[in-house]
Amino acid sequence: MEALNTYGLSKKFGKKTVVNGIDLKVDKGIIFGFLGKNGAGKSTFINMLTGLLEPTSGSFEILGHKGNDLKAVQPKMGVLPDYSSFYDDLTALDHLKYFSKVLKLSLTKKDLIDTLKRVGLEDAIHVKTKNFSFGMKKKLGIAQAIINKPEILFLDEPTSGVDANSILNIHTLINEIAAKGTTIFLTSHNLDEVEKLCDEVAIMNNGMVQTQGNMKQLRAYYKKDITLYIKHSSGLEELQEKMKKDLSVWVKDVKLGDTFSEISIEEENFIPEINKIFVNNNIDVYRLEVDEPSLEEIFLNLNEKKHSA
Ligand SMILES: Nc1ncnc2c1ncn2[C@@H]1O[C@H](COP(=O)(O)OP(=O)(O)OP(=O)(O)O)[C@@H](O)[C@H]1O
Questions:
Q1: What spacing in Å lies between the alpha carbon of 13 and ligand 1's midpoint?
Q2: In a domain, 72, yes or no
Q3: Which of 205, 220, 235 is the last residue of a domain?
Q4: Both 103 and 12 in a single domain?
Q5: Measured in angstroms, how far is the CA atom of residue 153 from the centroid of ligand 1?
């Protein structure tokens, strides 16, 4: 069951097409990462889904509700937009009070304070937002987005401009919220973050989704080899030729050393076979490290792949 479906969703600003016919499916309960270079159209895409922008064409459904009936689904949605603005003279607590009134939520003062604590604003509950740093405003934006315990949460760059400790705190929070069944749709420039948090990722390029999948699928799509670094017992010198022959079915490239070898393979399913070949040749494997292409490598590979296609 999907939490979000888009059908040919497009947005033009004047003659410029910023989002170009996106068809996207996001399953319920997952953390979905939406990636793309600056100006790729990520915020424009989110802003259409959350009602901040009107699509030029195409349609979408959120939690089974049609996009042109967003009022029905808005109570189940939480949104951290790319830019949140606050009233300078209201405190963090006043903001949440005001926002919960607008949403007609019956929350106690303790509920609101607990939400501020969850996002790491425990020391700023009674501080006016004119005295907030950029990172503190981001946290208040997240508090505002989760105050209604949403079924779907849109987070546009939740950790940009936030210090390292707070980033960890926000990651924990995102995982906790997802563990309770909320679908999370997030954009980020932090590829480590996306790789760590997200079950599935889509990469946007020139207003279109260039590729979508989990990390395993993306790695397979970009066919970057997996490198194995193997520390093993000595005695390989005399076995070089035999080992190379045994391994040849599984590997792309092999560098065998006396106690350390480097092997490139295409699929992680081959790892047990490689291990067996070492064992069958009476070479003990002490340590085997797997170096898989990171999301960053996949991402940087995008244009290369596009131009060679
Ligand atoms: N209201 C607008 N009017 C005209 N052009 C706009 C408007 N909003 C966005 N754009 C343009 O649309 C393009 C995509 O912008 P968008 O903010 O969606 O990209 P993004 O992928 O979120 O970028 P970033 O990662 O830098 O936040 C940019 O070229 C931007 O200048």
A1: 9
A2: yes
A3: 220
A4: yes
A5: 21
C-alpha of residue 142 to centroid of ligand 1, in Å? 21
For residue 299, give every residue at least 6 positions away whose Cβ sits within 8 Å of its Cβ, in sequence order, or none. 35, 191, 203
Residue-wise pLDDT tens digits, 177-204: 999 999 999 998 888 888 899 999 998 8
Cα(38) to ligand 1 centroid in Å equals 8
User: What is the CATH classification number for the domain harbouring 167?
Assistant: 3.40.50.300
**For atom 4 of ligand 1, which residue has the closest CA?**
13
Q: Is residue 299 part of a domain?
A: no
Pairwise CA distance, residues 236 & 245, whole Å: 13
**Which among 116, 114, 88, 87 has a CA at the least distance from the CA of 102?**
87
State the complex-level ipTM: 0.96
Query: Does the beta carbon of 38 lie inside 6 Å of ligand 1?
Result: yes
How far apart are the C-alpha atoms of 210 and 202, rounded to whole Å? 7
Mark whether 169 and 262 lie in a shared domain: no
Residues 201 and 241 in one domain: no
What domain range is 275 assigned to?
225-291
Q: Has residue 303 got a pLDDT over 80?
A: no
pLDDT greater than 50 at residue 309: no
Of 198, 220, 242, the one marking the end of a domain is 220
Q: Please name the residue ranges forming H helices in 180-239.
A: 191-197, 215-222
By 3-state DSSP, what share of the chain in percent is helix, strand and coil, each rounded to 5?
40, 30, 30
Q: Given this model, what pLDDT does residue 302 score?
A: 65
Residue 82 CA to ligand 1 center (angstroms) comes to: 10
In single-letter form, the type of residue at position 252 comes to K
Q: Which of 10, 12, 13 to mutate to test the pocket of ligand 1 (most atoms within 8 A of CB)?
A: 13
Total count of domains within the chain: 2
Q: Is 19 in the pocket of ligand 1 (CB under 6 A)?
A: no
pTM of the model: 0.81
